[in-house]
Structure formats: C-alpha cells, structure tokens
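#structure-requests
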Amino acid sequence: MHVLQIAWEYPPHIVGGLGRHVAELLPALAGESVQVTVVAPRLRDGALEEVCEGVTVRRVDVPDSPWSDYPSFVAQTTQALLEAAIELQTRVGRFDLIHAHDWLATEIAVALKHRWRVPLIATIHATERGRGRGGLHNHAAQRINDLEWRLTYEAWRVIVCSHFMARQIGEYFQTPLDKVDVVPNGVHICGTPFQDADHWLSFRRRYVADDERMVFHVGRIVYEKGLNVLLEAWPTVVNKVRARLVIAGMGEYLDALKAQAADLGITGSVRFAGFITNEDRDRLYHAADLAIFPSLYEPFGIVALEALANACPLVVSDAGGLAEVVQNGVTGLVVPADNPGAMADAVTAALNRPDMARARAAAALREIRDYYTWPRIACATAAVYERVMSEWQNGDWGKEFLVS
C-alpha cells in the first residue's frame, strides 16, 4: 500500500504538535510495511528530495516573502505542492491513498482525490474555532474553519487524537461520529540525560538556586496555553513554597506574559528561558520538581506525554485532551481550566509532597510504555488505511480511472 502524506510541517521544520506527530508517525508507518511518501513545503532547509527512515520526502520551495501576503503565499505553495505530487505519481506509480494533515493541506488533498479518484483520509490536529474558544472572530478564522469543514466532508475517514476532538468536529462540522477514528499521539520513552549527579546539579543551577523548587513549562507562547492563569496563580504558590517557575518557548504572547509578571511583582521567581533545544528540554524535565500545562484549549497535549516519558511529575488543566492523557491523582494532578486558585493549590500540594508526586510519575511511565508508543499508533493508523482500502475496493467510486 502506497500512501501520499500531505503536511505543512515536516523535519527539519516543526512548529507544534502536528509537526511532531507527522515526524514520528511516518517512519513508524514505514515500519508497518506501509510505503510512505510525503510532500511538504521547504520552510527550513532540508533536501528537495530524499529518503529518510524509510520515508520518501519531497519538499517544494516557497515564495520569497511568505508573511507579506499570506493568502498568496498559501495559494502559491499549494500549487507547487500539487505539481510536485502529480510529478511524483508519474515517476513512482499510483498512490493508493491520500492522507492530509489539517486545513493547509485541504485544497491540494481534495484536488488530488478527484484527479486520481483515490480515497482521502484526514487527520484534524486542532480546530480554529477551538483555538478561538468556540468563536470565529475574523475573516481569516472563518476561512480556516471552512477549509476544516471541507476536509472532513471530503475525507473517507477522519482521524483525531482524542475523544474530545471527536466530539468537537462532530459539533463544529456535523461530521458523523461513525466516520471518526480516535488514534492518540505517542512518545518515546526517555532515559536520563545526565552523566551523574554532579552533571544534574550543575545543569539545574543554571535555572534555580539549591534551595528552590523548580516548576517547568515548555511550548509555544500563545494565549490558548493558559500561561496567564499560571502567572495569576504563582504569587499564591511562592507565598507557601520557595520555588521558581521556568517558562521555555517563544511566541506572540511572550511580551504580554512578561508584562503580567512585572505587574504581579513575581519577576524574581519567574524565568522566561526563551528557545531551548530538545536536549535541554529533556534535561529540564529531569531537573524539575514539577511540569505544568495550564492550557485553555488542548486537542491532545503531546507535551504532557513528553513530561511523563521523562518521569517528571505533572499538573495539567482539564482542557480538551489533557484530561484523557492524565488520570487525576493516579498519573498526575488535573485541575479545572482557567482557575488560578485550583492551579495554585495543585502546584503547592505537588511540591509539598514530592514522594506522592514521584509515585504518580512512575505510574504514568508504566502506562506510557503500554499505550502511547509510536509502533502502536502506527499500527492503529495502518488499520484505518486497511479499512478504507477494503471499502473502496468493494465499492464503485473511483474505479473508472485506475490510471491517471
């Protein structure tokens, strides 16, 4: 089975959860004997064409000034991706399925579906209406929502990462729930990134003093991650526990958070670490006493899995898929979203009872080893492919054009 994947994020260009999902899923699918080809924009280096980890990668160059006229940039890039896919099929033979990831892939995926008469599968990683807390606040948001609807409508089956997302696309796009498959994200189990205790201590001292507890957050700095709620809770925490909050990542909301921290008088106990490497991210998970993700909207929460895969105790909000990943009181602590008081209580409790926090982290690690592995996720995705191929072969649609 040869599957064409269409994604706007692929290594070395990874922005968020979509990029990490595609980067891990595709090699794992190749390990399940699925022939995988991906077309993606070349937004951050990478060869125009290569085979990496069993995946054939075809990147296309993009316009020189993408942010000056974003709609034109998207339209030109979509056309380049379309032409690359058509040229690929001419060279390598017919694709059996098309798998599109999120709204930016909609127009190329739908065009190829009808040109080649092959089934389309869509993964919806997040929704614009969800990011807007249930609303569409401008023309651009409405346009993205329309593309998300069209992708779910045109797809033979729709894959989402959580039951929360399944309910959301059912509500937002009237997608029948029997057309939706829930396949969670995965994570790699991490070993210790430190050579010895001295190495661990010297790294930790870059961020906190020896008598301070470390609470760590990493991710894109955008409103829906709920960091304003965490900062609102932080004065209560530091009144009870000597602790420092380390926030790593970049994004459009960073300046607003720095201003909020100054207004709250907590700049001395909050450090904005900026961009960090994946290696330092894992070191921080191991050095921290607690990881925290106070999201207001979260389709799944790969970051929570990453924290747990590094055996870091965890506090999360109950937004979206986070409450499906973390079992309250068993594998972490879960608090209501947008509730600074509950957030402060949970952080304080976890820091004051490190033995219980570490026991929850150990239980989470056992669950991850059993359930959230990429080979298991690839197997579930391949099962969706097999179902679609079986249904297509037993039907009439697309049989009039078996060659393009």
